[in-house]
Each structure stands twice: as C-alpha cells, then as structure tokens.
Write a structure and sequence with these properties.
The complex is a heterodimer of chains A (about 675) and B (about 375). By secondary structure, chain A is α+β, with helices and mostly antiparallel strands. Chain A has 16 helices and 26 strands. In chain A, about 40% of the residues lie in helices and about 30% in strands. In chain B, about 50% of the residues are buried. Classes of the chains: A alpha+beta (about 675), B mainly alpha (about 375).
C-alpha cells in the first residue's frame, strides 16, 4: 500500500514535471480559450436559447460554455498548469543553483578530450605564464575564471552568462505569480459560497433595495468587478455584478454621487471625451472627495477603482404635443413624459401605453452625397488623408418611445425634435420599426411657409372629415369646369367622383385608390384612370385646404408652388400614416435633459501580484534569450594546452565564439 | 596583442565621432520636439519622449545603419513640415509634398518600392545575382525611409487638421499596417546584414508585399487612409508603447514564418543551392521568434496595464486578449520544444509557418470575425 502510494506520488511528480505534459497543457489551454472567443460570453441566456435551440442550450450550459473562463474545468486546467510549472521549478531549482555557482573544475582530462568543441595548441611558455595570459583574456571576454592546480600543470575553469539560469527561475516563477494574482481577482470565493448554498444569484427584476441578503456581497468582499448606472443628481452605494443569467448586488463602503456627465465632440461630430464629475461620501453622509473621471482616467478610492464605462439617458423630462392622426380636427393635446417611465393614453379605441425609452441630444447623420475620393494626381498617389466628407451634420435631438396597445403589441418610434431639409423642403420626421434589429422607416410631415405643422394638420383633418367632403367636391367641380358646365350632369358626375376619391383616400391612402382602380377599371385604362384620380385628389385637396383655413380663420393659402408641394407632401404623408401603425404623432416641444453615467467599480488585490509577476516574466525572458550560458576549460601542461567549450544552447554564435577562443589560444601559446 | 586577441574594448572607446554626433542629433531633435510640441503632451508622453533619447542613441550604436536612417527620416520630415508651413492646403500645391513627402505620397512610394524590391530579390535569387540582391536591399532601405517619413508627416498633418484631432499614427488598421511593413523590413535588414543572407529577401518581402496589398486595397476601396480623430478609449499615452511593441512581435513572427517556408523548400531541395545553409535559416528563425516573443510578452503586459486603466480590469478575456494569450502560448511551446528538447528541423519550421496563421488571426481575424472591447480597426 505504502509503496503503491509512493510510486503513484512519484509518477504524478514525473508526469507534472514532464515537458510533454507542460506542452499538452499549453495546447489544451489555448484550445479552451478559443471556445470563449467564438461563442459570445455572458450574453443574456435568452440569446443563447434562440441561437442554439433548447437542447444544445442545456448541453452548453452544463459545460459552462457561457462563461468559459470561470468554468470549473477551465480553472482545473489552469491549476494543473500552475502545478506543472511549480513542480518544474522545484525539480530544477537546486540543480540550477548549483550550476550557477559551480565552475565544474572537477572535469577530467579525458572528458575534455571527448568534447565536440575542443582545440589543442603547442606552447613554449611555462604553464603559469600561459595560464596568467589566458585568464586575463577570458576575464576580458566576460568570463569568471577559477584556476585549479593539477599534478602536471593546471586547469582554468571559466563560466559566463549564469543569469541565463536566473532567467529561467524568474520567468517560471512569474507564471505562477500571475496565475495566483489572477485567482485572487477571480470569483473563487463566491463560487465556493454558491456551492455551499451561502450565496445565490438574483434573477428577478426587482428594486435593488429589495434584493435579499443571500444575493448581496458585503463591502469587505476582497475582489469584485461590478457596474452601476447613476443619473445626474443621484447617487449609488451598490454595484451590480452580472453572473450567469442573473446578478449580485455588491454593497460599497461609500456612496458615489454623479454631479454631471459630459460628452465633448470633435468638429466632425465623433465623441471626443466622456467625463463624470463625481462626489464620494462616506457611510455617514460626509463628503470625502470630489473628482472628475474620464475614459483612461479612473479614480481610485479606498482600493476601489471607479471607471467611466458607459452612459445613457438618466430620465430626461419631455414635454410633448400630440396630434390624433385620424381625427377630423387639427386639435392637439399635451403629454409630459420621463425617459425610462411609462404614461397611459386613453382613447376611444382603447388604452395605449407610452413607454419612453431614450432621448438623444445629438444625432450626427450623413445627410446625402457620395464621398468624392478622386482628385487629379493626388488620387494616383493615394488621395489626401484629410477627410472631405462634409455631409455629416448634427440634426438635433430625438426621443424614442414604444407605443403599446391594449393587446400588448408594441411598435417603436423615434421622433426628431427639429425639422429636416430634404429636397429643399422641410419636414418633421418620425421613424417607426417593429423589431429592434430593423432600421427605422420614416414618416415625413411637411412644414408650411411659417415653419409649422399647422397647415399639414389642418389639411389632414379636413381630408379625414366626411362632413366636409360635399363642399370640397363642389368647390373642386366648380374650379375644374368652365362656367357653362355648371349645374349640369357633368358637374354632378365630377362631384361624385371627387367625393368617392376623397372617401377612398381617407380610408387607406393611395393603396386604397389603386385597389379600387384594379377592381373596377379594365387593365388597358388603369394608367389613365390613376392619373385622373390623382389629379382629382390633388385639386380637391387644395380646395380642402382653402376650406380648412377658412374654418380656422386663417388667410387662404397662396396659389403657388410651395402650396402645391405642401398639398402633395401632405397626401403622401397621409397615405403613409396608414402603415405608420400609431394613431398619434408626438412632437417634442421642450426637454430637460438628465444624463446617466455608467460606472464600473473594481477591487482587484491581485493586480500588484500580477504586475510584479509580469516584471519578473519580462526580465526572465530577456535573461533566457539574451544571456548565453557558456563554459570554457583550458587544461595546461608543460608544452601543451587543451581548450574545450560547452553551452546549454548550441547556436551559430557559439560556433563563432569557439573559433575566436581557439584562435586566441593559438596566439597566446605562440 | 590586444587586437590579435579580439578583446572587446570598453564601450566608450568603441564609439566613433559619428556615434557621438548621432547621439547629439537624437538628443537635440527630441528636445527640440519637446520644447516645440510639449504643450500637446501629458507628463507620461514627455517621459516617453525623454526615455526615447537614450534608447534611440543606444539602438543606433548597436545597429549602425540606423543612425543614417534616423537622420534621413528626421531631415526629410523637417523639410515636409517646412513645406507645409502650417497650411494643410499646401499638400496639393507644393511640388515636394504633392509628389514625394506628404504622408500619402511617401507611403505610396514606400508601397511601390516594397513591391519592386520583392521582384528584384526574387530575380536576384533565381539569377544568383549579387547585384540584384544589393539593389533589392537598397530599395528596402529607401522604402523604410519614406515609410517613416510618411508616418512622421502624417503625425504632423493630423495636428494641422485640428489640434484636438492630432495623434501618433498608430491608431487604426491602416496606420499599423504601414508600421508593420516598416518594423518587419527593418528587422529583416538587420538579419540580412548580420548573416550575409540577402537571398532570403524574396521570402520576407512576400509577407510585406501582402501587407502592402492590404494597404492599397484599404486606401482605394475603403478610403481608410483618411485621418480620423481618436475615440476616447484610445486617447492615452499607453498607445505609444503598446502598439509598437506589439508590431515588433508580429513582424518577427512573420519573418520567422517566411524563413520557415525557405527552410522547408530548401530541405526538399528546392532552391537549396541558392539559399543560405539550413543552419543559418534555422538560427535566424530562432532569433526572430525569440525577439518576437520577448516583445510580444512586453506588448501584452503593456496592453493589460492599459486595459486596467481603460476597461476596468487588466484581463477581461476579451477576444483580442484571449487570442494574444493563444499566440503567446503557441510560441512559448515552440521555444520550449526547441530550447529544452533541443529539437530542430522541419517540424519547427512547419510550426513557425502555422504560427503565422495564429498570429494573423489574432491581428486581423479577431477584428473581422469577433467583436469585443478592442474594436479599433474594423474592416
């Protein structure tokens, strides 16, 4: 039994210290690391289910592939690597230390004669004088020399480059240190606590204060890496640690308050800096310090480093004006909202929930134009390094919201606060999309000469209003027909057509009109019919605008191109409203921006260990590669000298040096 | 007696007047840069600049041809800056700038010369012509000079675009590919002279030509040569250390891989009579991997230290970090096999070639296929 244990221990020791094992470990570690780069790590678990399907999701979860680098099996590989390196050091250390000190002066003449690199010389000098000269030469070459008397002469034993061996120690000890430092900063303690049932990750979406103690980590937790988002004017005394499909709450030994978050921009619009003005308070509420952090410039307080990691909206207050798009009046209503909060809108068609998701004070957009790279000779020589894309422009603030109907269906909207100029005309833009990975499709609503949406909304209301249709149709017919056709059958027909076109359009836009044409008109005449209907629609719309203005006590619209475009754009926009998917349009009138800064907070006691290890590693690597360990022996007898040379690593430089020493011996012996 | 014995003289006795002149030029030039542009540097960047004085002087003393290169690059860069006279528009008016030493012109000349040198080296190898090989070497020297001038001038141009836009040109894929070409060819020039191995030029220049091809495609197809301001995460003095150190690693590993190819061909009798002896190729290959490994180690450590300041942790298992580790493990294993087991020959040559694929993936593949924190050079 005892011998069995001993021999098992011995073979384990042999295995751990073998080069083959070490190389295998390096390979396995490399391959295991690849997995974690191919499969995105620490994603929400739902993403994995979608990506892999329920079966493989479970298999992968069991294997710990969603957080490979913290999986137990990965840590086991690392542990083996550390063990292997440690055993290797343990095994070689005494030997190497001896080697560093030893001159190997006991070497026998026979074994010197058996060296591959040896050189003999005949000399007339006495052994003593040759030895003195040779010793001076070797010392000049950077060797440490020991002179040993022998019966029939003497032996010079010389060595150089002993730091090479030291390099081996440094580099390998460094690996152990770096791994230990890394483990100190890892989550081993939590893993153990989790295994023992002392800690549990929280998966519910509940307020931080309600998270139970079992999912909280105490302020003296030796190492953690968490994040927290703080709105301007607020503070936080916890950080959140994402673990698997849940999180943990890390209580901090202090409170961080965000006074202000700033983004600066380059003239081209790209962000230049993200900065947060922070205040730190102790647990009793006393202010301890104030600091500004930025990317690359963290604050270290109480052993905890606070980093600028991200930013978001922190609950901007929005004042909105709304229009009911399908109402026959242009009346407006006011809504107030706060980003990240919800508001309920009541309407005859049921309740809607307005979920404000984001606000952006700037939007840098590429507004048209191809980038021109070809410019005479410079193009041949690779063009100018100066970017000439002048099309990037800040188009002002926008806000995003979801409109959820009573059945829980939601679409996402993004509305710009300021009008945008497209084809020399100005529009208000509202984007819509069904899913987050789609691009927004925009509804453009034309502005009138006074720069407001009023004319558009009035005309829209009038076109939606069935009560106005007889009058619109009548005015249209009178305008379209010469006076002698008034009060005839033709006029009645035209009035009927106009009413019909208007009614169709009000139920489904151009789509409805084309559907009607396809159903009623023979194929050959469809183009002509469409043209006629469009003409009727545009002219009627112009009359509708006249009436709407009159009813609203506004001056009649000017009969010019601008009004023509307004009418056409309104019709296009109205037609798009049927696929816009929301019964309302919200215009941002005013906002009070509140930003939030995303901070990362880390405590990593292993850092200095890792850095120290890194320093040793660098020194070790250089010693190993650039300090060459060599030994030279010169056995001198009266009339004869034998030079032998050896090195741990045989390189071309070694051959060169040996040739040089051999030549030197010849010169000295002469 | 002393001379016959080839006894090393003390360092200061070995230095010539030109060595001292060079050191004085380095010190003068860098101190001038400090006084003139110091306002754009933080304390760390000033420290880096000051530390560069002894480092560059020592490097020039160690590798003598560097002295001439340094002075030529400095002089040409100053001419270019003088020609600009603070006005970016002069790029298209001043003849010298337009056709030779504006950053883009210089870099395009560099590209052309590297391609020509590749052809010349191969012709020299096949025709056993020392003249052609020497011509290839000369072309590489001129290419390196113009490439460095291009980067220096680009540095200056970036400040002309806007004082807040200005930065050292090692911040995106385009710029680092130029850097890669320069570092790789400089290292090759060193080995070439030391081992009298001009016949290997054709092999090393293939990888540089591939990089040149990428630069040209990236310029003409993507307009990537345009100077862009730095994203906040890159605004750090660490960039000046981390990136160049990394490219010494990448460059050395590339050289090793191409020498691996030469070794394998030679072992099969292809070009064997024209190439240097296998031991020589093998020795350079080892040297390249050793220096590459040392610098890659430093670069990764510097990267970790930067990450600790920028991303909140020295190691986040980000794809770039992980692949850097894989590259490191790969060459660590290579070196263990060679140094401890004493293994040589085709196996290690093959391994060096495969290592290039691993390195290339870490360098470009990660940017193309994997997303992470280190998304600074996207394709």
């Amino acid at each position: 039994m005892n011998t069995a244990t001993a021999s098992f221990g011995k073979s384990l020791f042999e295995l751990l210290s073998s080069m083959r094992f070490a190389i295998s470990l390096l390979s396995i570690l490399a391959i295991a690391s690849i997995i974690g780069t191919v499969l995105k790590q620490a994603e929400p678990y739902n993403n994995y289910v979608i990506q892999l399907g329920p079966y493989w999701f479970q298999v992968f979860e069991k294997l710990g592939l969603y957080d490979v680098y913290h999986a137990a099996w990965f840590l086991v590989i690392l542990t083996f690597l550390v063990a292997s390196v440690s055993v290797c050091i343990w095994r070689n250390a005494p030997n190497f230390a001896r080697e560093m000190k030893s001159f190997r002066e006991q070497v026998s003449e026979q074994s010197l004669a058996a060296f591959k690199h040896k050189h003999e010389a005949v000399t007339a000098h006495s052994p003593e004088s040759l030895a003195a000269q040779a010793e001076a030469y070797l010392t000049g070459q950077g060797y440490a020399v020991k002179r040993v008397a022998r019966d029939d002469g003497l032996l010079l034993a010389a060595k150089a480059g002993k730091w090479n061996r030291l390099g081996y120690f440094l580099a390998h000890a460094a690996i152990v240190l770096i791994c230990i430092g890394g483990l100190m900063d890892g989550n081993l303690v939590f893993k153990a606590q989790q295994l023992l049932g002392m800690k549990k990750i929280e998966t519910r979406d509940i307020p931080q204060s309600e998270v139970p103690a079992i999912s909280r980590l105490s302020p003296d937790n030796p190492s953690f890496r968490g994040s927290v988002q703080i709105p301007e004017g607020s503070s936080a005394d916890v950080a959140f640690l994402n673990v698997a499909d849940g999180y943990l709450v890390q209580d901090l030994p202090f409170t961080v308050a965000l006074k202000q978050f700033r983004i600066e921009h380059y003239s081209t619009g790209q962000p230049k800096s993200f900065e947060s003005d922070l205040e730190i308070f102790d647990r009793s509420g006393k202010k301890i310090r104030e600091a500004t952090i930025a990317v690359n410039h963290p604050l270290i307080h109480d052993g905890i480093a606070i980093y600028q990691a991200s930013f978001a909206d922190g609950g901007t207050k929005l004042s909105l004006r709304g229009w009911n798009l399908f109402a026959s009046q242009a009346a407006t209503f006011e809504v107030d909202g706060v980003v990240h909060q919800n508001t309920t809108l009541t309407s005859a068609a049921g309740d809607y929930t307005l979920e404000f998701t984001d606000f952006r004070p700037f939007n840098i957009e590429n507004v048209g134009g191809e980038i021109d790279t070809g410019r005479d000779a410079m193009a041949v020589l690779g063009g100018s390094p100066v970017s000439d894309n002048k099309h990037l422009r800040n188009v002002g603030p926008s806000f995003q919201y979801k409109l959820r109907d009573a059945r829980g269906q939601a679409r996402e909207y993004s509305n710009y606060m300021l009008p945008m100029q497209l084809d020399d005309r100005w529009y208000m833009m509202s984007g819509v999309r069904e899913t987050p990975n789609e691009a927004f499709r925009y509804l453009r609503m034309p502005l009138d000469a006074s720069g407001s949406l009023d004319s558009f909304m009035r005309l829209r209301g009038a076109l939606m209003n069935p009560d106005l249709r007889p009058e619109i149709a009548a005015r249209f017919a009178r305008q379209a027909l010469p006076e002698n056709a008034w009060n005839t059958e033709i006029e009645d027909k035209l009035k009927f057509s106009a009413s019909q076109v208007l009614a169709l359009f009000a139920t489904g836009g151009f789509q409805a009109l084309s559907g009607f044409i396809e159903a009623r008109v023979p194929e050959a005449e469809r183009d002509k019919a469409a043209e006629t209907y469009l003409r009727i629609l545009e002219l009627s719309a112009f009359e509708a605008l006249q009436i709407a203005n009159r009813l609203d006590k506004q001056p009649p619209p000017a009969a010019n191109d601008a009004t023509g475009w307004l009418v056409r754009d309104t019709l296009n926009s109205l037609s798009d409203m049927f696929v816009y998917g929301a019964p309302i349009y919200l215009q941002l009138m005013q906002y009070d921006e509140v930003k939030a800064s995303g901070l990362q907070l880390t405590r990593s006691p292993g850092k200095s260990v890792v850095y120290f290890g890194s320093l040793l590693l660098t020194l070790g690597v250089f010693f190993m590669f650039y300090v060459r360990e060599r030994r030279v022996w010169i056995r001198i007898k009266p009339g004869h000298a034998l030079l032998a040379m050896s090195a741990a690593k045989h390189t071309l430089d070694f051959d060169k040096e040996f040739a040089q020493h051999a030549q030197a011996l010849d010169t000295l012996a002469k | 007696m002393e001379i016959a014995l080839n006894q090393p003289a003390p360092l200061f006795k070995r230095l010539t007047w030109f060595d001292w002149l060079f050191a004085a030029i380095v010190a003068g030039g860098l101190l001038f840069a400090l006084s003139r542009y110091g306002e754009f540097m933080d304390i760390y960047e000033k420290a880096i600049l000051l530390a560069a004085i002894p480092s560059l002087a020592a490097f020039g003393w160690f590798w003598k041809p560097f002295r001439v290169l340094f002075i030529a690059v400095g002089a040409l860069s100053l001419v270019a800056i003088g020609q600009y006279d603070g006005d970016l528009g002069r790029m298209e008016q001043a003849f010298l700038l337009k056709y030779l030493i504006s950053s883009q012109a210089a870099i395009m000349w560099m590209c052309a010369l590297f391609l020509l040198a590749t052809v010349t080296y191969w012709a020299g190898l096949l025709a056993r012509s020392d003249f052609l090989n020497r011509t290839g070497t000369a072309m590489v020297w001129v290419a390196v000079t113009l490439g460095f001038v291009g980067l220096m001038v680009r540095w200056y141009e970036s400040y002309l675009i806007g004082p807040d836009v200005g930065h050292i040109p090692v911040s995106n894929l385009y710029e680092v590919f130029v850097l890669f070409c320069l570092i790789t060819s400089m290292m090759y020039l060193y080995y070439e002279a030391r081992y009298q191995a001009r016949q290997l030029g054709g092999f090393v220049l293939i990888i540089i030509s591939a990089a040149v091809g990428f630069i040209l495609w990236y310029t003409f197809d993507r307009g990537a040569h345009e100077i862009q301001p730095l994203v906040p995460a890159l605004k750090s003095w660490w960039m000046k250390l981390h990136v160049p150190a990394n490219f010494v690693g990448y460059g050395a590993f590339s050289i090793a891989a191409m020498l691996g190819v030469a070794y394998l061909l030679s072992a099969r009798g292809i070009l064997a009579s024209r190439l240097p002896k296998p031991e020589v190729i093998d020795d350079i290959m080892y040297k390249a991997i050793a220096i590459g490994f040392a610098f890659f180690t430093i670069a990764t450590i510097l990267g970790a230290m930067w990450a600790a300041e920028a991303w909140g942790g020295y190691w986040s298992w980000d794809p770039k970090e992980t692949w850097a580790l894989i590259v490191w493990l790969n060459y660590a294993a290579w070196l263990h096999i060679r140094l401890v087991k004493g293994l040589r020959g085709p196996m290690l040559a093959w391994w060096a070639v495969v290592g290039l694929f691993v390195t290339t993936f870490a360098f470009i593949g990660v940017n193309m296929f994997l997303s992470g924190l280190h998304s600074y050079g996207e394709l």
